[in-house]
Amino acid sequence: MNYAMYIFFFFVLIVLFSSFVTVKQGTIAVVTVFGKYRRQLRPGLNFKIPLIEVIYSRISIQNRSVELSFQAVTQDQANVYFKAMLLYSVLNHDEETIKNVAFKFVDATNLMQALIRTIEGSIRAYVATQKQANVLAQRNEIVMHVKEQIDIVLESWGYHLQDLQLNDITFDDEIMRSMSRVVASNNLKAAAENEGQALLITKTKGAEADGNAIKIAAAAEREAAQLRGQGIALFRAEVAHGMTKAAQEMEEANLDISVILFTMWTESIKHFAENSDGNVIFLDGSTDGMNKTMKEMMAMQFQKPKN
pTM of the entire structure? Predict the structure, then answer.
């Protein structure tokens, strides 16, 4: 009798402890009764009916990721190789959503297979409408197309596509080499155009600088000529003024004006001798030559100006 009581109490303890269930954070437990959905258990300590309620599965509500590698063919029959990262999660915590996640697929392997094949098919269908030269530039368009096509299907499964990243897009080796040659030739062409533009700018600026220098030199020469002309005119005016004043003083002193001319003649000869710098100047130094020169100078002095 005592052994039977011990066994009974031991069985009661086992049943009692089995009625308490711990659900981890970020996880929801699906409970069934005789194979039929009954309810869900939230994270923390939960109670279930022993021997009747059974935990069918534990569903993670955290984000999950998977890497994809597949091939597609463009409109112009070029092979494109993709490496992508898929980020997805349970749509929400609603009861219908959790039931879809728990019972739509037999297990996680079948879900993953369907998810990967669906995304690959959507990308292949889009790439098949594009040419090889446009694929690399349409990375964002491919992602947006997949999200628009896949979100509706995933929602019926109870999931939501968080993000799709196309980390690597490559082509066959021959295509990659031809693309490299095209890029290199375009770079050489751009470099040649830039060098031509730089040379043109340099020559244009040089021509402008030369033209401006010529203009500045011409303006300076013109100004210098004007200043030289003004200096000569002032010099002549001063000479005339001095001669006039000297003539007036000679007349007031009752002296012959020809003395002034004689002085100017001798000063000129002296200036020629001092500044000839080795040059030979022939002058008639005789008395007759001096008289002839004096007469000519006096004739120029007393010549009346023409009206």
Answer: 0.52
Q: Checking DSSP bridges between strand 44-47 and strand 53-60, what pairing results, if any?
A: unpaired
Distances in Å between the Cα of 189 and the Cα atoms of 178, 202, 203, 230, 306 are: 16, 20, 21, 61, 79
Helices (H), the chain: 2-18, 95-103, 108-127, 132-135, 139-157, 173-252, 258-275, 287-302
Task: Give me the domain span that covers residue 298.
Answer: 256-307
**pLDDT, tens only, 221-248:** 888 888 888 887 787 777 677 767 777 7
In angstroms, the CA 71 to CA 77 distance is 12
Provide the token pair at 281. 């100047």
* Same domain (yes/no): 296, 229: no
Residue at 45: amino acid letter = L
Same structural domain for residues 33 and 83? Answer: no
Query: What is d(CA 70, CA 149) in angstroms, rounded to the nearest whole number?
Result: 18
Burial letters for 167-206: b for 16+ Cβ neighbours within 10 Å, e otherwise? eebebeeeeeeeeeeeeeeeeeeeeeeeeeeeeeeeeeee
Q: Where a domain ends, among 11, 36, 60?
A: 60
Close Cβ partners of 159 (under 8 Å, ≥ 6 residues apart): 88, 89, 90, 91, 101, 115
What gap in Å lies between CA 65 and CA 49, rounded to an integer?
Answer: 35
Do 145 and 83 belong to one domain? yes
Do residues 142 and 183 share a domain?
Answer: no
Q: For residue 250, what are its two tokens?
A: 């000679």
Could you tell me if 84 and 152 lie in one domain? yes
Shared-domain flag, residues 248 and 188: yes
pLDDT tens track for 73-125 = 888 888 888 888 888 899 888 888 888 888 888 888 898 888 888 888 888 88
Same domain, 167 and 194: no
CA 243/CA 171 separation, integer angstroms:
103
**Residue of 70, 172, 167 lying closest to 116 (CA atoms):** 70
What is the total count of domains within the chain? 4
